[in-house]
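Quick one: structure for this chain?
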Amino acid sequence: MKKNYILALGIYLFVQFSGLFGVPKTINIANWIVIKYSIGLLLIILILNNDLINTKKIKKGIKESIYWSVGGAVLVISAQFLIGHIESLIGFKHQSNNTTMLLNQIKTFPITILFTSLLAPVTEEIVFRKIIFRTLQKKTGFFIATLISSSLFGIIHFDFRNMITYIAMGFVFSFIYQRTNRIFVPIVSHLIMNSFAIVPAILYLK
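Got it. Here's what it folds into:
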C-alpha cells in the first residue's frame, strides 16, 4: 500500500474513533462530528491530491460518469429495498441501527445533515473504494477485494445485522468505480443514496 494511502487511512481511523477520547466540553456532539470529519476529509484530500483529481479524465467522461452515478444510486437503493423485503418475508424485521441513530441526531441537531449527506459519503468512498478496494483489487481481483472492503465498510458502521446490505452496497459502488475508474462516480451515488435515506428526517423537521 502506498505511503500516502496508509497516512490517509490512519487519519480516517483516528477521526472515526476519536470519540473514545471524549468530546470538547464547549462543543455539542453534532458540531464536533461535523468539525472533525471536515478536517479529516480536508487532510485526506490534500494527502491524496494527485490520486484523486484528474481533470482530463473528468472532462472526457462526464456524460458516462453522470449515467453511472445516477444508475449506481438506483441500484443501491433498489438492493436495499429488495434485501429488506426478503428479510421481512422470512420474519427478520429490523431497521438499521446506524440509520436510526443518524435520523435521531438529525431531528435534534439539523447540522448533522451535512455529515450524513456530504462528509461521510465522500470520506467513505475515498477510504473503502479508492484506498482499500483498489489496493486489494490489484492483488486479489474484483470479487475478493469487494467482499473484504464491503465487509470492513459494514463493520465500521457497527451495524452487524445489516452486513448483507452493506456488502451489496459495496459491490455496487466497487463495480461502478471499476467500470468508470473515477472515484467521484461512487461518491455521487453514495451522496444520492444517503440523501434519499434522510428525506424523512428533513420532512419531519419541516
